[in-house]
Amino acid sequence: MSGRRRGPHQRREGEQDFELNIASVIDCFTVLITYLLVSASFISISALDIDVTGVGDAPHTEPPPVSIAVELDMKHVLHVKLTGKEKDEWVVEAKDGTWDLDSLGAKLEAIKEKWPVVEAAFVAADDDLEYREVVKVVETTKRTHKNVTLGDRT
Fold this sequence. Notes:
Shape: elongated
Largest sheet: 6 strands, mixed
Number of helices: 3
Low-confidence stretches: none
């Protein structure tokens, strides 16, 4: 044992002094944050208040007298189906190559007038349809029926 006393800032034998160089990490985060801030200005986020089939437990209540289903296909044709105490089906043809949302809204309003207790509707779409197209139909359906369940066509 040597007779030297070590002070608080003296190193032991074999220890090396090193510096942590985080300049490149800071550069990466600066670029990433800038990218996120710029890209966030191009993203518009909106929320839809809809249910998804098979999720959650539904309360046990008496079923409505009729069920309404709106089915979307790839040719922009809407099929409105009524089942239950009354069975009927209407086809809303495409208008100028896109959904005829005005005719859909009018048909759903007529159904609502006849069956005012029915608050729910089911919207089913082909898997290959764009999300924004489905959202347009869901928003139109929500104007007359506040509970909209979204599913796929089978």
